[in-house]
């Protein structure tokens, strides 16, 4: 099995300014030490409520944020932030809001050319050929190349965002809520396009979303994130149909409708814990109907559930 991506104990804390003697007042624990493997050609879904660390994780993976500790390996090689071009050739980010992520003063051709020039040092002729090829692959007309980002609809702009990521010739794409800002009718078109491109270019996807139904539909495996930690990991067809972590169950029970955002209102309280002062033990214990004294004291690691899934829980459900 070839690995596209391996994260080892990857962690991100943000210091809060304003402490005594110029030091930090504390730290926001955005992503707790996380280890995860993504297989070549796989779509790994990452779901979780707002504030659980999805974007911070994604930003570390594409080099937009330095990790506090831990390591990232791509295709067996450690990533060095000292070489951003090598980073960009291997892994690219597709943003949620396609229009505002494209430079408004540049034509689409200029936007598309940048990665080919800077990451691949391609000459003009080679660039033009490559851009035509990618534009055809994402079903956009070549005449669009001379226009500016604001001239496009959300769906077209997202195709351009995807085309730009493909221009870097990276084989791993981080798709951060790639269809959340689009009309429902356009969402399906973009999801179908992503599926086609994956086969055509042999891509690996990390698909980040708070929309459970979309993640279940597009992913091979899903990681459920709660308060900066993976609490359950398993095959997409099983993880919501037969969840083991009480938090995953809560999400699955409360978001049965396509397109409905992820919230877990039926929990005991809807508040996430304070990321500056994380609770001891399992971060979900205060909201969990099954919590015991052990849960309040000791943080559970990911345990094998015997059916291809893992859950960080001492009292998992659906185990019979
Ligand atoms: N630059 C920053 N400085 C301080 N805290 C931050 C910073 N960026 C993120 N955080 C905090 O880190 C935690 C995780 O945030 P993150 O944006 O990664 O979550 P998310 O799951 O992507 O949320 P959303 O779906 O709302 O984008 C939150 O508590 C957030 O307030």
TrEMBL record:
GO terms for molecular function: ATP binding; ATP hydrolysis activity. It is found in: Cell inner membrane. Residues 5-252 form the ABC transporter domain. It is a peripheral membrane protein. SMART domains: AAA. Belongs to the ABC transporter superfamily. This is ATP-binding cassette domain-containing protein.
């Amino acid at each position: 099995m070839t690995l596209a991506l391996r994260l080892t104990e990857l962690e991100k804390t943000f210091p809060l300014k304003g402490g005594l003697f110029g030091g930090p007042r504390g730290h926001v624990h955005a992503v707790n030490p996380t280890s995860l493997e993504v297989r070549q050609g796989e779509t790994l879904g990452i779901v979780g409520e707002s504030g659980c660390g999805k974007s911070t994780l994604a930003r570390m993976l594409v080099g937009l944020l330095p990790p506090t500790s831990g390591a990232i390996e791509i295709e067996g090689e450690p990533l060095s932030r000292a070489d951003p071009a090598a980073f960009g050739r291997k892994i690219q980010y597709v943003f949620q809001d396609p229009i505002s992520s494209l430079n408004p003063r540049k034509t689409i051709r200029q936007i598309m050319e940048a990665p080919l020039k800077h990451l691949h040092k391609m000459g003009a002729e080679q660039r033009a050929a490559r851009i035509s090829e990618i534009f055809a692959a994402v079903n956009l007309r070549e005449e669009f190349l001379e226009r500016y980002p604001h001239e496009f609809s959300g769906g077209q702009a997202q195709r351009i965002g995807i085309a730009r990521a493909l221009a870097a010739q990276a084989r791993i794409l981080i798709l951060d809520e790639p269809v959340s800002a689009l009309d429902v009718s356009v969402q399906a078109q973009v999801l179908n396009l992503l599926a086609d491109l994956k086969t055509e270019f042999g891509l690996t996807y990390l698909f980040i979303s708070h929309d459970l139904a979309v993640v279940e539909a597009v992913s091979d495996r899903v990681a459920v994130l709660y308060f900066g930690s993976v609490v359950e990991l398993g095959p997409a067809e099983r993880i919501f149909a037969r969840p083991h972590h009480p938090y995953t169950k809560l999400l699955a029970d409360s978001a049965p409708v396509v397109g409905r955002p992820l919230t877990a209102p039926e929990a005991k309280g809807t508040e996430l814990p304070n990321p500056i002062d994380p609770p001891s033990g399992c971060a979900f214990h205060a909201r969990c109907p099954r919590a015991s004294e052990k849960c309040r004291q000791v943080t559970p690691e990911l345990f094998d559930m015997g059916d291809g899934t893992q859950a960080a829980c001492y009292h998992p459900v659906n185990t019979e």
